[in-house]
């Protein structure tokens, strides 16, 4: 008989018959396998011994006293035991049974009446070979997976490095212009600070933004605005040195960091160049755009000795440049810093004033120049400051207008006017129209319409008792985009007046696009009526224009009879000013409503009753 020698393996025989176990053992040993044989009689014993030993092959009888082969297969084919080849010995040769056994995980099956040495040992050899092939296949797959994982890890590391590099660029660069951003600027400025401190050198921070950029965005769209920012970047780069750091820190705000200058005057020269180059027209998508810029300059060590201080002071200087007429530059100074601190203090106190009812409305009457009757009033806010006393609007309104505080203040004024009108109405007074000044930020936030609707409904007053006054400067900042709101207000019979008419640069465009009801002649025109023939001619032209448009005309700032007479003789219908009456408290204005007219040739005098 031919003998086959294999690597050593453990063989488990699961058979209840002792005679058959002995027969199978003899067949296997005679065949020459290098084998250790384990014998058990039940399925549970097989499961237990398999848990404690490693087997290369299992001979499993289908007829066991406690369970059949399929149940044994189900119990041992968990986790790592899946790789054990199992040959099932059956008492019948049924095709259906064979199929079920193979589907349950058996490697092979042999009917017991056909289990001769050649058949049995051939099946064992096949099972061992199949298990070895499967192991080799698994090892190969593991090696291949490991290789793939290594390559994937390598590619992943490369991708991570590239992603980190891109993230670093995004963290330090403005995505639109490609310029350094605020993060990069801070890093670079702090390095420059260290170098300048050691070398005892000066350097400058030039902070600038674009005047009227919001108007460009609102009128022509953000795509044109973005292209304009790119064009601005290109122009500024042409007038600075390559080593200077130009950064975009947000919106239309830029900062230029200039080091190793010999004297502060050099920063002024560069600022003037930037103003000049940006003043020239831009052609973007066929549109001819005109902008300007205001530049604030802070120098080290004179204007600050760290990043925050230098940036803050350069920003303050930029706003000083704007206040000086725009398209210019200003250096920071200690005096300017004190002014900024005072502004912050006023803004803080004004917030408290809104909460603590320190504000009060005064009413400057408007009169018909022919009938001398009271036809309305302009509401003017006054501040009863707890420590500074009685404050007029010129001491705090401009500061409020630089922040969102102006919106809260506008809400308060409209609410207070509507409340006062309701109170006067309840007292039986004959009411007149009240004018309310509106700031550009209120319109830009779509705040005015909703607030008026809320207050009119809450206090149950007639909306036609209200008039909104907007300056031409407000309209130049893009408020014409809110024309829908103004159309709704018009349908509510709320009048719209252009304040300081003739002093802006879009007068006729406003008249064309908006439902204007009233033109207000600026007080500067009124003041110069007797002394300046050109101003007088302009004033009569405004009056005539109002008549031709079928709208009202009112002059403000009337201070003497001569001015009143000129306006009356040239057809101006209405006027307001100290000649007729100073702004009155609510109680005094109520007395005026009862009197309903003014006395010629002298300022109105009211007696308490």
UniProtKB/TrEMBL annotation:
Q: Which Pfam families match?
A: EAL, GGDEF, Response_reg
Where does the GGDEF domain start and stop, copy by copy? 201-334
Biological process according to GO = phosphorelay signal transduction system
Q: Which residues cross the membrane?
A: none
Domain EAL: start-end pairs: 343-597
Q: Which residues form the Response regulatory domain?
A: 10-127
Cofactor dependency:
Mg(2+)
Q: Which SUPFAM superfamilies match?
A: CheY-like, EAL domain-like, Nucleotide cyclase
Q: Name one GO molecular function term.
A: catalytic activity
Q: Which InterPro entries match?
A: Biofilm_reg_signaling, CheY-like_superfamily, EAL_dom, EAL_sf, GGDEF_dom, Nucleotide_cyclase, Rev_trsase/Diguanyl_cyclase, Sig_transdc_resp-reg_receiver
| Matches recorded under NCBIfam families | GGDEF
Name by which UniProt lists this protein: EAL domain-containing protein
């Amino acid at each position: 008989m031919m003998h086959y020698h294999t690597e050593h393996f453990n063989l488990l025989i699961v058979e209840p018959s002792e005679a058959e176990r002995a027969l199978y053992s003899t067949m296997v040993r005679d065949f020459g396998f290098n084998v250790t044989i384990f014998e058990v009689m039940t399925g549970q014993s097989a499961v237990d011994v398999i848990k404690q030993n490693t087997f290369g092959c299992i001979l499993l009888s289908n007829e066991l006293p406690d369970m059949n082969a399929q149940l044994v297969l189900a119990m041992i084919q968990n986790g790592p035991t899946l790789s054990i080849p199992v040959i099932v010995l059956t008492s019948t040769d049924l095709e259906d049974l064979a199929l079920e056994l193979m589907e349950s995980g058996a490697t092979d099956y042999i009917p017991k009446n056909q289990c001769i040495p050649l058949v049995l040992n051939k099946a064992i050899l096949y099972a061992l070979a199949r298990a070895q092939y499967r192991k080799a296949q698994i090892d190969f797959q593991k090696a291949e997976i490991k290789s793939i994982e290594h390559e994937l890890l390598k590619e992943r590391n490369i991708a991570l490095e590239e992603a980190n590099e891109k993230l670093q660029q995004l963290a330090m660069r403005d995505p639109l212009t490609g310029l350094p951003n605020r993060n990069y600027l801070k890093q670079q400025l702090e390095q420059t600070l260290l170098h300048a401190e050691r070398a005892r050198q000066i350097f400058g921070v030039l902070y600038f933004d674009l005047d009227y950029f919001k108007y460009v965005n609102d009128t022509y769209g953000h795509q044109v605005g973005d292209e304009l920012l790119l064009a601005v970047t290109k122009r500024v780069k042409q007038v600075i040195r390559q080593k200077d750091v130009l950064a975009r820190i947000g919106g239309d705000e830029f900062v230029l960091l200039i080091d190793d200058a010999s004297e502060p005057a050099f920063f002024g020269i560069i600022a003037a160049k930037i103003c000049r180059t940006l003043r020239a027209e831009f052609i973007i998508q066929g549109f001819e755009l005109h902008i300007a810029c205001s530049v604030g300059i802070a120098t080290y060590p004179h204007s600050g000795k760290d990043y925050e201080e230098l940036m803050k002071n350069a920003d303050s200087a930029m706003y000083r440049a704007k206040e000086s007429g725009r398209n210019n530059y200003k250096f920071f100074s200690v005096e300017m810093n004190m002014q900024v601190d005072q502004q912050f203090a006023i803004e803080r106190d004004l917030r408290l004033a809104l909460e603590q009812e320190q504000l009060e409305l005064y009413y400057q009457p408007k009169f018909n120049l022919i009938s001398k009757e009271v036809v309305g009033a302009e509401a003017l806010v006054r501040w009863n400051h707890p420590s500074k006393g009685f404050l007029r609007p010129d001491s705090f309104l401009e500061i409020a207008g630089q922040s969102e505080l102006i919106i809260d203040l506008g809400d308060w004024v409209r609410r207070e006017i509507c409340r006062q009108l309701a109170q006067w109405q309840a007292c039986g007074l004959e009411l007149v129209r009240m004018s309310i000044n509106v700031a550009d930020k209120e319109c830009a936030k779509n705040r005015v319409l909703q607030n008026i609707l809320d207050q009119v409904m809450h206090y149950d007053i007639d909306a036609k008792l209200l008039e909104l006054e907007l300056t031409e400067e407000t309209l130049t900042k893009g408020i014409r985009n809110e024309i829908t709101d103004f159309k709704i207000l018009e349908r509510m019979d709320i009048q719209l007046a252009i304040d300081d008419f003739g002093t802006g640069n879009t007068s006729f465009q406003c008249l064309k696009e908006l439902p204007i009801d009233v033109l207000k002649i600026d007080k500067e025109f009124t003041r110069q009526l007797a002394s300046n023939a050109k101003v007088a001619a302009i004033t009569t032209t405004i009056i005539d224009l109002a008549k031709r448009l079928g709208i009202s005309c009112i002059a403000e700032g009337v201070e003497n009879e001569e001015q009143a007479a000129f306006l009356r003789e040239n057809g101006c219908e209405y006027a307001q000013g100290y000649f007729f009456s100073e702004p009155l408290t609510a109680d005094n204005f109520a007395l005026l409503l009862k009197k309903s007219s003014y006395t010629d040739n002298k300022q109105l005098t009211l007696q308490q009753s």
